[in-house]
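# step 3/5: fold
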Amino acid sequence: MHQVYLDRVDTSTAQHNYGVDSIKVISMFMVVVLHVFGQGGILKTVTFGTLNYYISWCMEIAAFCAVNCFALTTGYLSIDKTVRFSKLILLWLQVAAYSIGITFFFWLLRPDTVNLQQVINSCFPVVNTSYWYFTAYFGLFFFTPFINKLFDCLDRPLINQLIATVFVLLSILPLFTKTDLFQLSKGYSMTWLCALYMIGGYIKRYDALPKLRKGNFGLYLFMIGFVCLSKFVMESIAMVPGRESCNSLLFVSYTSPFILLASVFLFLFLSRVHFKTNISRKIVMFFAPISFGVYLIHTHPVVWNYLLINRFAKYATLSPQFLIGFVLLTAISIFISCSLVDLIRKKLFTLFRFPAFSVYLEDLCSKALRRLLKNHN
């Protein structure tokens, strides 16, 4: 059992890893790109077989590992830390602020877009799953102490077997069955976030794949290229008379082994990037803490269904260079505007001492739990 401590990377004296913080920023930007193409209506509008079609899907697939990367970051940063419920409380307050605040804002200005049921649902963001990632993370949070303890107790060979089992059972096996074998909902689930948490924790503990430091970005591009090629080839085969149609999106999901590997390789590449200048570090540290707010704002149900839906469909008819440019500029605009809104929210939280309040609630709940257990015994 002592081997687990010998194999670990000593992070006690390690400098702050700005590369990992950059993953939060870049992956959230990629999430916005996904939504510009998807909810924005470009993928539904672009003409099949045109250059814009192939460009759109290549960009979509290249950004598809964004959510996996964001979740890997959680495991990487939390595997060696003590779980603080004040963090979850503060995050819930942030989610509730946007869920309730944006709903009431539209209710006052555009009452036709919001009904009473939506107002009620906005007060319970976890239960109504309006933000699927937060709901999945909320469930994951309560398992993180046990996952961390598991990593402390198992030696590296067993951890290797655990990660291999996760990869085979949750990513590879469903491809052969062509069904959602373990109810992963294509990655929109707590179970998948748990798997990514463990993989991220493994990367942190054991400095995974150190020999591939210089080739990780190339491997990411290779995996993305393979997924793109497989989609286009399967579509071409389906066009042949007499051929049965096949699922061209078979490999385009969060749980796809190729998307998962692309996520890991991109994560490894970015986590090992050195930010040497103060300006680059300040930019990363400015956006990293408020990146989750970008997700909460632009995927709010009202914003999602009334402001974003098919908003950018006209981009599909632009020239290829303008298509790429407008998609990126739109994603940058959404990302920066939402970031600035969340910066204001963060300052208000600090002004009204919400972080201290969350710590107070944590202590209050801990005391109540200890009393309950003492009385029970």
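# step 4/5: annotate
Residues 1-13 have pLDDT under 50 and may be disordered.
# step 5/5: archive (pending)
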